[in-house]
Amino acid sequence: xxxxxxxxxxxxxxxxxxxxxxxxxxxxxxxxxxxxxxxxxxxxxxxxxxxxxxxxxxxxxxxxxxxxxxxxxxxxxxxxxxxxxxxxxxxxxxxxxxxxxxxxxxxxxxxxxxxxxxxxxxxxxxxxxxxxxxxxxxxxxxxxxxxxxxxxxxxxxxxxxxxxxxxxxxxxxxxxxxxxxxxxxxxxxxxxxxxxxxxxxxxxxxxxxxxxxxxxxxxxxxxxxxxxxxxxxxxxxxxxxxxxxxxxxxxxxxxxxxxxxxxxxxxxxxxxxxxxxxxxxxxxxxxxxxxxxxxxxxxxxxxxxxxxxxxxxxxxxxxxxxxxxxxxxxxxxx
Length: 334
Prior knowledge:
Layout: H1 3-15, E1 18-19, E2 28-29, H2 32-35, E3 44-52, E4 60-66, E5 73-79, H3 93-101, E6 105-109, H4 121-136, E7 142-152, H5 154-164, H6 167-171, E8 180-184, H7 196-202, E9 224-229, H8 238-249, E10 254-259, H9 266-269, H10 281-291, H11 313-325
Parallel strand pairs: 5-6, 5-7, 7-8, 8-9, 9-10
Antiparallel strand pairs: 1-2, 3-4, 4-6
Helix pairs in contact: 4-5
């Protein structure tokens, strides 16, 4: 494959959004099939679109809720990935709808990205979104006593950092507890920074070791669910294993879920209705959130089937080819 197409494929996977393959080739939106109306969960109400949680073009969020909620619902803020330089809440409608269809108020914020900002600005944006949820989600039917955070890839890093480094939420006067964190395919132990992409985003800090979740673990952390595909070529599975070991050693609650023959993007795709047959990611998340109080009377059980719907093999083979092209350069690749 020509180099410009290899680089474009790399951008598609890491960017999770609209990426130009080459000047003479049409743009490709790898997320579009998952966000098509027939492919997403129904019985969902869009409670808010493009809601400002602070000043700034990127500080806006979307809110999804159960269609027939009978009372206050648990709340999940989902943080998407994209190497801290790409991504949009619009790409993850399928996640918001999946969580809402299973009884949650789901909030998906945008946040500022590199090169507009570097560490820790994107974490501060996420903390501002949490503060907005604390102050306002009750008017949308959310229960702030049952608040959870989830994230994928760079978003999983963000989610875990909000839980481990208490100063981010404290600086924005967040007082509601984080009842649990579900972190999918996240980098938690990737210093020293050996790649320009990471150096550009994190290298300006005076304390690079302090940017690593693995170095911030202490006693009395929120319960954490770590989920990862065993065949992830982007974020090494050791990131999850090392963080889990550190949490256990500190006496913190951690649950690990590993999925055979699953790569980097597939776990987040498996949250949505179109890809849910691939791995029980949504079921594992809901079981974890329920364990820590999301549904005191019991949770719904999302549909999980062991075979793909008719016509989905083409999407599966496309993602498999992209993962194969993205094998790590060496063992230091996070």
